[in-house]
Amino acid sequence: MIQIGSLKYPNILPLVGYHSTNEEKLIIYKYQSQGSLLNLLEDYIHGKRDFPWELRLSVASGIASGLNFIYQSSDNQEIIPNGNLKLSNIIMDENNKALISEYGFSRFLNPKACNLSANGYTAPEKLLTEQGDVFSFGVILLELLTSRTVEKSGIDLPKWVRAMVREEWTGEVFDKEVSKAATQWAFSLLNIAHKCVSHSPEDRPTIAEVWDKIEENVNAQRELPHSPGKCCESNEHDCCFLHTILSDTWDTPGSNY
């Protein structure tokens, strides 16, 4: 816990303290009034809050940045995988910045554990590894794109998205807010998510590769003029953009973009 508590980064919720006995284990964080990413997405679904594309992209970038910091800042110490990445553990601060919480909690509960209990964010191999964290991040990315929540619905979101892609209904995957504002950018993130939730851990990218690809998309969106709606309603350059933003190995089957 000393190693976990020493992590200081804008997208990681600082650990205030912890309590550990044979009977109970507690971790303590500063209260954040905006709640979790799950609260935000559910409020959006029920028409209580806005969740525009720009904020979704910022959230995805922030989570990826925090994870990348965790894996790049070990300083020759053992890297502790997150193992508990899900919407309810992503906290939103007063500026709508995404903060990773409960980092390392799985290891805190059971220091010798290598396996994870199954939930909608758990990779098929159920191991506490970087590849498992990549899978969990991919599920969160799919939730941001589809506005379908795994924790409350129990849906196997990667399976559902694969089925939609296989039937060449890829464009129907996106939430209406995403489709309305940024279809040309959303396909790029779908490519990333599709790779992250690959069944085999060997087929998934590293956290660093995911971070690089998302930043590539963020920077490209800043540089090019944004046009609402589908890119093919724009000019030829925008139409070709989604073919070139990612390498062939990141392409999502069934996409016409």
From TrEMBL:
Signal peptide: none annotated. InterPro entries: Kinase-like_dom_sf (IPR011009), PRK1-6/SRF4-like (IPR046959), Prot_kinase_dom (IPR000719), Ser-Thr/Tyr_kinase_cat_dom (IPR001245), Tyr_kinase_cat_dom (IPR020635). It comes from the Eukaryota. Residues 1-218 form the Protein kinase domain. It holds the Pfam family PK_Tyr_Ser-Thr. One of its GO terms (molecular function) is ATP binding. This is Protein kinase domain-containing protein.
